[in-house]
Amino acid sequence: MQENTINKNNFSAKEIKNKFDLITSENGKNWLLALNWILVLEFFSSFIEYQFLDIAKGYIEYIPNGIFKELLIAILIVLFIWYSIYNFIFMQKQKFFTFTLYISICIYLLSTSDLSFNLLLHNLNIFEVTLGGFGFYMISQLLLKFIIFYLIYKMLIAFRNRNKID
Predict the structure, then answer these.
(1) pTM, two decimal places
(2) Which of 72, 71, 143, 81 has its CA nearest to residue 114?
(3) What integer pLDDT is reported at residue 94 of this predicted model?
């Protein structure tokens, strides 16, 4: 009886891993999908670091208030609306990857006002974790860094296998 529950738990863990691989890299076949997930998770990770650590604010080159900021926001909104309509009409998978990256960049820029992407570039190093004490931030950053490291591994496998698929 106990062996059946252990086997069911192992099966569900394998099933979860297979579904995760399918969603994030099509089981190591699509390097562009894996890269897309890496960048989206890095934007999310940078946003969490910006919200929880004061050190993160030192990396940011803020956009000064003025006409340039207003024009940048207007251009981003117009491009977002145009690209959204275009994506929903023609719904191509490769265009959807670009769309999710565009949404991530817009959310990152609007939430952090970091025009130079210094915080993002600082955060791309998967081996650097700024510890701000044990809590939500540290747990989420360690989890995101582990997932990103795994996605980089899957992206490299997919990139190596792309010649075999063609």
Answers:
(1) 0.72
(2) 72
(3) 66
